[in-house]
Design a protein that fits this description.
alpha+beta, eight-stranded mixed sheet, 15 helices
Length: 451
């Protein structure tokens, strides 16, 4: 391949990552990832030449180090071939690590915003589904009157059909307006992706907050009206006042203030109840009081338990990615082993000459291990950089186009450093073992042939 092929493919990958999805599939982004990986591998010889030219003046005092460096410098193609598998496998491992870490970090922040109360009460799921499972009205009134409870926040969930050709979206009626008489306006209790607009002053204009899926699927825009069939009268105008992340409902959701919803629908049903306790009150004691007389009809959970269960399910769902990373890196190291074994067999005369001028077998194997360390170090750096670039595409392009939600890029530096160092150590050991097994007595035989 020509020297400009790699950079050209990398530039093409950047351009492809800006293209939109095709029928809801991020096809251009997938091609961008493949093109970027190929471009990064084809750019390895130029990278090897550049880095080794910087290192050469610094190793003049060590004959073995200088020999290993100069050979890699004279034959950058061999180094690229030996490390291409490591670069590709490490890049994919880094990309998966960053993507999963970013998703988990974003989900953790989302749970912190969505679960501010101490306890959550929901109606036991009925035969008609979660929408028809409502809490008894007398129960809601009794909970609000308990002295151990500071306040409660009721939530009503119901589905809306905005487009018969698409799945229903979920309407969430919950407290969104700031408390009356508050010294400073409180932020909207939703994980917003940007600043929210003020609540409309006109009673005919109703503020709604849409999830990111509503933006992608239904074209909702901040500050623009959105029609909600079956809710409100002919003069009612629903205005998108904010956009929020919703990792629980992929097909779209709309949040509306509960008071506005009651005025428009006269539906006082409650599916969920957020319970805020007085300071110093034990959650376990209140939980027993809430369940008394309603066991089997309600479900009471602590916010911390919901959070832990959600993250445990998340970790279990993505546990397979760590095994896939191990398999990918193992296959890359197998490529390094095969490449080094073939090169050692082809370099018998070179090793014979080195033995003839006084290098011992241990020094020759140290030379092979040094080359392996150098090449896998370069491959680890290149693979990490390439993996970070791929992770940006996964987080900011593939994920939003596939699932209609965004997340923040979170880099787990300690894990990435451990991953890179483990590849360098494993690559060095692999090169040493390959040289030891493949060389054997080849150096001695080569000396005899030269004589």
């Amino acid at each position: 391949a020509r020297a400009w092929t790699g950079p050209l493919l990398l530039g093409l990958a950047v351009a492809l990552s800006f293209l939109p999805a095709v029928n809801g599939l991020p096809l251009a982004a997938y091609v961008a990832i493949a093109t970027g990986l190929l471009g990064g591998i084809l750019s390895l010889p130029a990278l090897v030449q550049f880095v080794l030219s910087l290192l050469s003046p610094r190793v003049q005092g060590s004959a073995l180090a200088l020999l290993a460096l100069e050979r890699a410098r004279r034959f950058p193609g061999s180094a690229a071939v030996a490390t291409s598998g490591v670069v590709a496998s490490l890049a994919l491992s880094v990309a998966l690590t960053v993507m999963v870490s970013s998703f988990r970090h974003s989900v953790t922040q989302w749970l912190d915003v969505m679960l501010p109360a101490d306890l959550y009460v929901r109606a036991a799921v009925a035969a008609g589904g979660a929408e028809t499972a409502v809490l008894p009205p007398d129960f809601v009134a009794r909970v609000a009157s308990l002295p151990e409870i500071a306040r409660v926040s009721a939530v009503r969930q119901r589905s809306l059909t905005l487009d018969p050709a698409r799945p229903n979206v979920m309407l969430l009626a919950r407290s969104l307006r700031p408390e009356p008489g508050a010294a400073a306006p409180a932020p909207v209790p939703l994980p917003l992706v940007s600043a929210a607009l003020p609540f409309p002053a006109s009673p005919d204009e109703i503020a709604i907050f849409v999830s990111e899926a509503m933006v992608d699927v239904y074209g909702a825009r901040l500050g623009q009206p959105l029609e909600l069939p079956g809710l409100g009268g002919p003069r009612t105008r629903f205005v998108v006042s904010g956009i929020w992340r919703d990792y629980a409902r992929q097909h779209g959701s709309i949040a509306i203030d509960r008071q506005d919803y009651l005025r428009l629908s006269e539906d006082a049903s409650v599916n969920d109840l957020a319970v805020f306790l007085q300071p110093g009150v034990a959650a376990a004691t209140v939980r027993q009081a809430l369940e008394a007389g309603y066991r089997g009809r309600i479900e009471v959970s602590a916010s911390q338990a919901i959070r832990q269960l959600s993250l445990r399910i998340f970790d279990r769902s993505f546990a397979v990615t760590y095994w896939l990373q191990a398999v990918a890196i193992g296959m890359g190291l197998m490529g390094v082993s095969a490449s080094f074994s073939a090169q050692v067999m082809a370099r018998r005369r070179e090793f014979g000459l080195l033995a003839h001028v006084g290098l011992s077998r241990r020094q020759i194997l140290a030379l092979v291990a040094g080359e392996g360390a150098l090449w896998t170090l370069l491959g680890s750096v290149a693979g990490t950089l390439l993996g970070l670039a791929v992770s940006v595409v996964l987080v900011h392009v593939v994920n939003p186009q596939s699932f209609h939600w965004t997340m923040d890029l979170h880099l787990p530096w300690a894990r990435l450093l451990a991953l890179g160092l483990s590849v360098v150590l494993a690559g060095t050991l692999t090169a040493w073992l390959s040289g030891r097994l493949a060389a054997g007595q080849d150096a001695v035989q080569a000396v005899r042939q030269e004589q």
